[in-house]
Automatic annotation (TrEMBL):
Name of the protein: DNA/pantothenate metabolism flavoprotein C-terminal domain-containing protein
Organism of derivation: Hibiscus sabdariffa (roselle)
Chain ranges of the DNA/pantothenate metabolism flavoprotein C-terminal domain: 47-94, 169-279
Superkingdom to which the source organism belongs: Eukaryota
SUPFAM superfamilies: CoaB-like (SSF102645)
PANTHER family: CORNICHON-RELATED
Source organism phylogeny: Eukaryota, Viridiplantae, Streptophyta, Embryophyta, Tracheophyta
One Pfam family hit: DFP
Family: Belongs to the PPC synthetase family.
């Protein structure tokens, strides 16, 4: 597809999308977070935008039904913790209701399982969960109060792409110090808002015939226009291992990514392959360490690659 057609498609996607609620407030939050809300702001501070969770495609404007994309949000939540540990400020663009940073040791239904009634009018943290709850609260508080974590939620593909555009524009001035770590599972097809049924689609009308449009590929405009100097990592998920690396390589070239992280659905928590123009690197979880996560060595590798990218950019500017 030529660039003019892509721009037209992107323009019509944003034009027809329902306006993002509180977009001015989000922009303001972002600018404060990126430039000020930190004990040591400064130009050299690295900021990463981590995207996490799946986008939905509503089928009705007053949405009752929607198409969803698989992602628990674990990758994004765990990676956020490792980026913060590595000294980055993290903007976490996450799907509402998915895994959150610092919550992995909590039970799945924390509110109901973490607390117990002390008496008729009071409650307390259950003894068995008190260490995990305390740890989660302290780590989360330290990240947010220290100006290292800003969480922004989305649900639909419309919200996700509008927010990604705002974030990328806000990060543009960081140039090489910005990173995008795009782990969210983003819908490939959508129903344009204007051609969407307003009310719940009626089953009495018989089989449902629906035409889905292709979501324009925004990765190329992220790279060339929204935040052109940023270090960009995208993810590729496949269920068929035979096509995974080929597809990741195609994405690397087509969207001019700096790396593409290739993973298979069934083994995604054990190993991933980082595809770069200089070859592929396999990254595995350290099985000898109980509780170890593949995101630990993955983030470590990408932080090193980002350092090289920044140093090369500085050397070229000299
Ligand atoms: O969120 P999760 O930990 O369950 O899974 C992570 C993932 C598989 C969604 C992610 O690593 C990924 O590959 N995201 C991109 C998916 C895609 O190809 O659109």
């Amino acid at each position: 597809m030529d660039s003019a057609t892509l721009h037209e498609e992107i323009h019509s996607f944003f034009e027809s999308a329902p306006p993002l609620k509180e977009s001015a407030k989000i922009t303001d939050k972002l600018n404060r977070f990126i430039h000020f809300d930190s004990p040591s702001p400064g130009k050299g501070r690295r900021v990463v935008c981590v995207t996490s969770g799946g986008t939905t495609v509503p089928l009705e404007q007053r949405c009752v039904r929607y198409i969803d994309n698989f992602s628990s949000g674990h990758r994004g939540a765990a990676s956020t913790e490792y980026f913060i540990k590595a000294g980055y400020k993290v903007i976490l663009l996450y799907r509402r209701g998915t895994c959150q940073p610092y919550c992995s040791s909590l039970p799945e239904d924390p509110l109901l399982e973490c607390f117990e009634l002390a008496d008729d009018s009071d409650f307390r943290v259950r003894q068995s969960h008190s260490e995990a709850v305390k740890g989660a609260i302290m780590n989360h508080h330290a990240a947010v109060a220290g100006g290292l974590l800003l969480k922004l939620p989305f649900t639909t593909i419309f919200e996700y792409l509008q927010m990604l555009r705002i974030i990328a524009s806000s990060m543009k001035s960081l140039e090489y110090h910005a990173m995008f770590y795009l782990a969210a599972a983003v819908s490939d097809f959508y129903v344009p808002w204007k051609s969407m049924a307003e009310h719940k689609i009626q089953s009495a009308s018989g089989p449902l015939d629906m035409r889905l449009m292709q979501v324009p590929k925004m990765l190329s405009v992220l790279r060339t226009e929204w935040s052109p100097s940023a270090f960009c990592i995208s993810f590729k998920l496949e269920t068929d291992s035979k096509i995974l690396l080929e597809k990741a390589n195609m994405a690397l070239k087509k969207y001019k990514m700096h790396s593409v992280v290739a993973n298979e659905l069934l083994t995604r928590k054990e190993e991933v392959t980082v595809v770069t123009e200089n070859g592929n690197i396999s990254v595995r979880r350290d099985k000898t360490r109980p509780g170890s996560e593949v995101e630990d060595p993955l983030v470590e590798l990408l932080v090193k690659k980002h350092s090289t990218y920044i140093n090369d950019a500085i050397a070229q500017d000299l």
